Amino acid sequence: MANENTLQSANGEALTGVILDEQTGLTLTEICRACAVHAETIAELVEEGLLAPEGGEPDQWRFSSLHLRHAHVALRLQRDLGINFAGVALAIQLLDELEVLRRQHNAPEVDNDN
Amino acid sequence: MEFKDYYKIMGIARDATQDEVKRAYRQLARKYHPDVSKEVDAEAKFKELGEAYEVLKDPEKRVAYDKLGSNWNANQDFNPPPDWNSGFEFSGGGFAGGDSSNYSDFFESLFGQGFRSERGSHSTFHGQGEDKHAKLLIDLEDSFAGATRTITLLMPEVDAQGHVTTREHKLNVTIPRGVRAKQHIRLAGQGAPGLGQGKAGDLYLEIEFRPHARYRVEDRDVYLALPITPWEAALGAKVKVPTPSGIVELKIPANSATGDKLRLKGRGIPSGTAGDFFVELKIVLPPVDNYAGRDAYQGMAETFKSFNPRANWGV
Fold this sequence. Notes:
The complex is a heterodimer of chains A (114) and B (315). With 114 residues, chain A is mainly alpha-helical.
């Protein structure tokens, strides 16, 4: 697969790293382990519309990098701020919008002085 | 070792109720949570807050902490009295703010051991080691050319006696060409070691770009604000433009304006479907500091006498 990349560990041993994207996404079991939660929690995030994995049935779900990141943020916000997943979904949406605005605001300016 | 005034950190009185402790925590957490906060030292503040809350929210730990008395001041040199925790037993309990390895020495000296042994237990999924996560900060150019970076991660390790120590884990990571910010690279078997016969967990590296002096990145597209002269904009021109994949010659069409966007297809991040490179034009006026310059602008004023950019305002 195009996204397989050879990695080198410190002792010279060759390892393989995979970029997570739509084609090489995580299964339900894998994302559960990556987030250290039970499948029910991930299913809840999907139900709430926070995660929209590829594939119809839970055993065909594939989660991309974006999903993994959103799952992490959702779990942290739920744990640390005590908000439910519906609130987290709103927060993530607003944070994403804020980030786009910040990026445009901080766009490099042309130096006008010379 | 520094004494930590957990009440001061949370901004509450020593006789605050448990409800007040929780309320103060929530308020400060919303302010400093690294996922939502842009405060410069948000992460450090949030860690400190999490540690304070871990102690004060738990009546057992709070009583033990209070027993140290209010004679201690923040930053004062501190050693726990030898008998300080006799008669207390800590039942642990989930931590709100992250990994226990982030706690201060002060916390460790008070609550370290009992707490530690409690923590290790959630990492068991059929004996497989925990998956680990880290951020990998790279330059935009690394994604265009590919690169190798050595990263050092601190991995907690449990020794034969059950003590937790941290070990440096060095990895040479090949940064694949075309990787984008927020993508994860998954390294199988590079997470925490398995328990017993279990496999090691995986290591996930989340890619982030260092801010670039020139380019702005949006997903797989790269943006550059390109300064051009008024005559280049008016007459059209060919100008040399830097891109992360090398210098290109760009044709500026006649009658271009500030804010116009030119697209170089496929010159963005070279991922599966390559992104595009966008040039945003910005006309820069030469300053007038001599007679010749002034004459040139006056000539323009004559030539374009009928041009009024505010015409449709009716003023």
